Amino acid sequence: MSALTSQHSRLFDTISAAAGQPVYLVGGAVRDAMLGRESHDLDFVLQKDARAVGKRVANALGGGFYMLDEARDTARVIIQGEDGRKQFLDFATFRGPDLEADLRDRDFTVNAMALELGSERLVDPTDGAQDLLHRQLRPCAPTSLTSDPVRVMRAVRLSLALDHRILPETAAAMRHAAGLLERVSPERKRDELFRMFDGQRVDTALRLLDRFGALPTILPELENAKGVQQSAPHIYDVWEHTLNVIQQLEGLLAVLVGGDAGRAANIHASTVLLFLRKYRENFRAHFDALLTPSRTPRALLFLSALYHDISKPEARSVEESGRVRFFEHEHIGADVIERRARALSLSTVEVQRAVTIVKNHMRLHHLAATGNPPSRRAVYRFFKAVKGAGPDVCILSLADVMGTYGVTLNQEVLENELMVAHALLDGLWETPEEVVRPPKLLDGRDLQKLFDLQPGRRIGKLLEDLQEAQAMGKVSSREDALRFIEQRVKRDPS
């Protein structure tokens, strides 16, 4: 197995020595090794004492240790790999009386293979190696999907990640089990959904979930978007537009974050890269800054993109001319994504980020509609509204305009949007202290002491106005700030 290196051999020797019993590498790591793919998440099973073995391995490797599941005797060790990346080693006791029972209880045959440490003997009771060779996805047992319906979602993700066919019998089992997703906890559906968002061909994955009847039980609000027609320049209904935006978003992230030069062969993607190339490292840093230990900003952005037009059916109105409008849909949509994000048990920070993205996804379009670069005041107000979600909003807005026009998009429209995005990001990453977060020249205590003001909202409003004046270039020193406040107090002494 070419993906198993000398580093793995040393690691396996350490684990075998710590265990004092046969240990087996199982699941995705074995599959990926057979495909020649690297894996940083390694799962091990053994007859007994997984917790104790995990502790001994952590001590031997100088890694971190914590329990994943006390009842099932499952533990995790986190170590630093030779390449500097974190590596996760999970230890569990057999799911059943022996290794074969454990493997037969897994989801798909390609994930039900085990490699014995030391001997490198392959254990494959469900013929996963043959399915891997023939690039097909097959459940380990007829009841694999109904016993754990979240495997319907996993089947979609794996089929795209591995480029494996979903066999007809597998598809039938998926349709049968899709309705049972209602009994799966929101947290498990969320975790599988976010793994899908972190993968490739996200729009295709969503179409497959929809085709197999799983999507309504995962994200029920999306059903209302189907068939809702829109006026020009839109060329799709709301549902197809949303999926097109998802596709465009993936391409933009590949170009700006992933460094995928192949995506830049597209004329519009190459135009985006031309305007925003200088910020690629900034984008990478932004999306590397996890909001939670286990979920990525990228996945959250995809969820937000799915819901950016979710309220259009509710906000839809038709003018006498026949033009369809969706006034304030972004604000109504912010309430919808908040409810869905909470239902998925996202963290408070994630909920706030998703709400901010959806609520503000039209801001860049409004600025671009003027045909002029945004003023310093506009840049300041943009980032005051979006807070830490500025890069997310910019990328989603670009994907939105590309998904709106589709093949009819002309360079002028795109370049106008990019002109605004460039100015906003330049303010964020090149001159933040000038136009985004000007330094504090006065505080509330200064205003109370120097202008005899009482604590309250008025002081907060004066300080906000002062900071905006700084961003506009009207105030640059403490003396300027004092004169500014003095004029405001004289104008309105109450």
What is the strand and helix layout of this fold?
Blueprint: H1 6-19, E1 23-26, H2 28-34, E2 41-46, H3 50-61, E3 64-69, E4 74-80, E5 86-93, H4 99-104, E6 114-116, E7 122-123, H5 128-133, E8 136-137, H6 144-147, H7 150-162, E9 165-166, H8 168-178, H9 186-197, H10 202-211, H11 215-218, H12 238-256, H13 267-276, H14 280-288, H15 297-306, H16 312-315, E10 316-318, E11 324-326, H17 329-343, H18 348-359, H19 363-368, H20 376-386, H21 390-405, H22 411-429, H23 432-435, H24 444-451, H25 457-471, H26 478-491
Parallel strand pairs: 2-5, 8-9
Antiparallel strand pairs: 1-2, 1-6, 3-4, 4-5, 6-7, 10-11
Helix pairs in contact: 1-3, 7-8, 7-9, 7-10, 9-15, 10-12, 12-13, 12-15, 12-21, 13-22, 15-18, 17-18, 20-22, 21-22, 25-26
Task: Please provide a written account of the structure.
With 494 residues, the chain is α+β, with helices and mostly antiparallel strands. It folds into 4 domains: 1-133, Beta Polymerase, domain 2; 135-212, Hydrophobic Seed Protein, CATH 1.10.110; 219-435, no CATH class; 444-491, no CATH class. It is 55% helix and 9% strand. The protein has 26 helices and 11 strands. The protein has helices at 6-19, 28-34, 50-61, 99-104, 128-133, 144-147, 150-162, 168-178, 186-197, 202-211, 215-218, 238-256, 267-276, 280-288, 297-306, 312-315, 329-343, 348-359, 363-368, 376-386, 390-405, 411-429, 432-435, 444-451, 457-471, 478-491; strands at residues 23-26, 41-46, 64-69, 74-80, 86-93, 114-116, 122-123, 136-137, 165-166, 316-318, 324-326. The strands form 3 sheets. Strands 3-4-5-2-1-6-7 form a 7-stranded mixed beta sheet. It has a two-stranded parallel ribbon with strand order 8-9. It has a two-stranded antiparallel sheet with strand order 10-11. A hairpin with a 5-residue loop joins strand 10 and strand 11.
